[in-house]
Amino acid sequence: MPSGSDETGRIRRLARVLLVASGVLALLWPAPAFAQSTAPGVDAGDRLLLTKVRQAGLWEMPAGLQAETRGADPQVKAVGAALMVDHGRIDVLTRQLAAKLGVTLPDEPSAEQQGWLAELRNAATPQDFDRVFANRLRAAHGQVFAVIASVRAGTRNPEIRNYATVANQAVLRHMTLLESTGLVDYSALPQSSGSTTAAPAGAALDLRTTDLLTAAALALLLGGATMFGVRYVKSGRRLRPKSGESHG
Asked: Under a CB-based contact definition with an 8 Å cutoff, are residues 2 and 232 in contact?
């Protein structure tokens, strides 16, 4: 049975692969120009935003990879691919802006996020995987969405403001895509006093040529991560098969 240190080592190796992948994407897509005027320093909220978005990508990219290899529903597979593409591109922007503003970013998912990845690996059947994937990621996106909105509303830094706008659009797209699977248990989501109008899910899945190139680059660079994911699936089945009850 793999030890906890083995598990952490695998997560770190996958994070390094994803880092290389997002670096290549930086060469394929120039980042949007952030404001160049003298900007105020970053505050705790600004740092939290960059950290949360970075960590979201570190676990949602491997989750998307698992969806492509383990999902039963073609829509779940398509959503997993779209999340991988988007997070690869957002990660480029996140690391560039963090470096410019002197913000140190994490290099691996949090302990909680690693637990969510384990929950996906331990889904007993492809159908259970689909349900856990849709609900776990939809709930997590809702949490990040709230952070982005809060920082966007109050930040004094124009570069963070522009970045939050981009991140907000991406997270809203992801929530819409996850909801398009028809598997989200809305009664399990935290209640909110606000409301947001989402873009049509069908339009969100209409990938452009550049998106397909992104997917190809990620697929090439994540070859090692694919084998990593397969080993995870096998080890997950040996370790702790369970009924994939939804924990949205």
From this structure: no
